[in-house]
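$ ./design --mode recover --in tokens.txt
reading tokens...
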């Protein structure tokens, strides 16, 4: 059994306590950088580092009066620091703190989400190897097509999660950027050294150019990446929901002892976690639209993006963390029914081998149009009756004058469809 991720860790990243802690560190680092430059007395910078503090309740109390969160924060910090607080926030604007802190929070979240994705990837790899050669029917348009293995289905999901990891790593780099460049990004009252110093200490890169804010295409990329990860999880969830249908029942969510599926029907075992993942993935996608709306702001800054981000960024990070943990547990404990897979594979009484017969006839010299006609003719009879496809083909003089009975038997062997499974696993990187 895998160890489930600690959901509160993600929640704590977006709590006020963590946000203000980052704000405080930014202000302290900026004061220390100013001291390096000789703008702030070094003793004052030491006092700021030693005495700085805050209380969330007090900040909120002050904000009720001043109607400005950063001013309320600075006022509360000043109550701890005393006279040296006059050296805090020198030359800075609110967004120097807000945007740089948001970058740190997104970075912290992305690093946690990457751990979650890596965990899901590992579980998918393990279960893909477990069911590598477990034959089942492949479906196109929801209709039986040709045999695959359940391991291949899991390997397909594994490969997509690998791509999600690379996407999130790229987005992490995009949003790991801070700015301490003043009211319109010109460093009018700041030396660029302050920005470089603060960002380096926080594990960020300085923005090569900014206005009063970091540009929101960065945030939109991050949010879209979270949504794509959600799409991948929904894709897996949707497939499991289908596989759990009563008439299919090839796999299902683990159903624990004492669990109830319905208030009215005691027999029900519903794919409720997969359905929850499908629903929450929609929220992730809807949040990306708001993030893209935030890209176009007035001139060097307006504030229309701020209220939106206070909702969508924490929510999306927490939602993805939540459904990642859910999906990892689903895959880890997924109940698989190989016997049902074989039953369903045989449900069309041999129709799934029609292409094998078609190709065998063409290789023996029959025109493709003629081969398709005769193969389809007998296939339609199977759809319309309870007859067996191979039995009907054995009764066809047109086919049996080209193929022997032994050759026809070989065409109906599912293993023929699965001869390249090892190659595919190698390509995907599951060893």
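writing sequence...
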């Amino acid at each position: 059994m895998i160890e489930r991720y600690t959901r509160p860790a993600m929640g704590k990243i977006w709590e006020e306590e963590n946000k203000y802690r980052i704000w405080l560190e930014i202000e302290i680092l900026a004061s220390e950088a100013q001291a390096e430059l000789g703008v702030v007395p070094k003793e004052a910078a030491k006092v700021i580092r030693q005495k700085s503090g805050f209380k969330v309740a007090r900040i909120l109390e002050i904000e009720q009066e001043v109607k400005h969160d950063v001013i309320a924060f600075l006022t509360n910090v000043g109550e701890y620091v005393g006279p040296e607080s006059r050296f805090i926030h020198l030359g800075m604007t609110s967004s120097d703190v807000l945007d740089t802190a948001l970058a740190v929070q997104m970075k912290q979240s992305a690093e946690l989400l990457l751990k979650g994705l890596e965990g899901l990837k590992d579980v998918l790899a393990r279960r893909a190897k477990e069911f590598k050669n477990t034959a089942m029917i492949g479906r196109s348009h929801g209709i039986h097509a040709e045999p695959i293995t359940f391991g291949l289905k899991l390997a397909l999901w594994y490969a997509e999660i690998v791509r999600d990891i690379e996407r999130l790593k790229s987005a992490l780099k995009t949003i790991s950027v801070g700015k301490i460049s003043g009211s319109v990004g010109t460093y009018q009252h700041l030396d660029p050294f302050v920005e470089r110093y603060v960002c380096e200490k926080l594990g960020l890169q300085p923005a090569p150019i900014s206005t009063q804010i970091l540009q929101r295409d960065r945030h939109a990329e991050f949010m879209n990446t979270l949504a794509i990860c959600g799409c991948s999880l929904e894709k897996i969830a949707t497939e499991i929901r289908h596989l759990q249908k009563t008439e299919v029942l090839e796999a299902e969510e683990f159903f624990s002892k004492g669990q109830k599926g319905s208030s009215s029907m005691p027999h029900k075992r519903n794919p409720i976690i997969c359905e929850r993942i499908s629903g929450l993935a929609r929220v992730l996608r809807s949040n990306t639209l708001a993030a893209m709306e935030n890209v176009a702001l007035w001139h060097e800054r307006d504030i229309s993006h701020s209220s939106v981000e206070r909702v969508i960024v924490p929510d999306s990070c927490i939602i993805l963390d939540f459904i990642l943990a859910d999906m990892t547990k689903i895959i880890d404990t997924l109940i698989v029914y190989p016997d049902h897979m074989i039953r369903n594979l045989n449900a069309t009484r041999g129709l799934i081998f029609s292409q094998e017969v078609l190709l065998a006839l063409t290789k023996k010299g029959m025109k493709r149009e003629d081969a398709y006609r005769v193969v389809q003719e007998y296939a339609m009879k199977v759809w319309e009756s309870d007859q067996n496809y191979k039995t009907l083909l054995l009764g066809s003089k047109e086919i049996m004058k080209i193929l022997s009975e032994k050759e026809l038997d070989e065409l109906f062997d599912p293993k023929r469809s699965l001869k390249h499974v090892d190659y595919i696993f190698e390509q995907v990187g599951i060893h």
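exit 0
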